[in-house]
């Protein structure tokens, strides 16, 4: 989180006095499109945003902010469909009527919210740069790192059962994505264990 926040600020400062080579999505060449797609691989690094990596990559390659963000959103479509398909294959296609209804409603709500969020972000990008987003990532990274350090070094060593210690080791920086969702998932599990 922190590293990519700093990168957003550096790239914005670098591009401040540079004219974008690609100002429209239609001007994007296949070569640049493929290279931007390769930046998605950076999302495998813990704490890395897929859209953040592709936007930074596109801006380094000379696209405008708007084109970088718009293409990043288009690039997410096959990734999201692929990830959803893999989950369906992994968990099977055996759903009850209620589960199918919940799934469809969830998909529709997510689609509507994402359209509104993308429209807002693209409107914001036309008038502003990504420095505020970079600062947000740095602050969030510090907060998340502080939380993990608190969980790992304070709670882990405070009279806990070995099973609870093992469970908290999941938060190890080298093996997990640094985001709040992981802690939200782990907290209910921790409540099942009792202090010695």
Short description:
The protein is mainly α. The protein has 8 helices and no strands. Helix content is 69%, strand content 0%.
Account of the 3D structure:
The two termini are 36 Å apart. α1 (2-15) packs parallel to α3, α2 packs across α3 (50-60) and α3 (50-60) packs antiparallel against α4 (65-91). The protein is built from 8 helices and no strands. The chain has helices at 2-15, 30-38, 50-60, 65-91, 97-127, 131-155, 162-168, 180-190. The radius of gyration is 20 Å and the shape is globular. It is mainly alpha-helical and 196 residues long.
Describe the SSE topology:
Blueprint: H1 2-15, H2 30-38, H3 50-60, H4 65-91, H5 97-127, H6 131-155, H7 162-168, H8 180-190
Helix pairs in contact: 1-3, 1-6, 2-3, 3-4, 4-5
């Amino acid at each position: 989180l922190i590293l990519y926040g700093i990168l957003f600020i550096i790239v914005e400062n670098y591009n401040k006095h540079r004219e974008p080579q690609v100002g429209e999505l239609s001007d994007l060449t296949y070569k640049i499109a493929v290279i931007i797609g390769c930046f998605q691989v950076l999302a495998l690094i813990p704490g890395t945003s897929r859209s953040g990596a592709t936007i930074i990559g596109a801006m380094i390659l000379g696209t405008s902010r708007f084109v970088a963000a718009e293409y990043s959103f288009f690039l997410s479509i096959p990734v999201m469909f692929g990830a959803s398909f893999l989950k369906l294959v992994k968990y099977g296609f055996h759903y009850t009527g209620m589960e199918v209804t919940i799934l469809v409603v969830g998909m529709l709500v997510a689609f509507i919210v994402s359209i509104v969020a993308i429209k807002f972000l693209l409107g914001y990008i036309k008038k502003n740069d990504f420095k505020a987003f970079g600062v947000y990532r740095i602050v969030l990274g510090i907060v998340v790192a502080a939380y993990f350090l608190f969980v790992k070094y304070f709670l882990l060593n405070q009279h806990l059962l070995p099973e609870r210690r093992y469970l908290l080791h999941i938060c190890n920086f080298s093996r997990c994505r640094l985001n709040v969702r992981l802690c939200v998932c782990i907290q209910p599990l921790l409540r099942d264990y009792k202090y010695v």
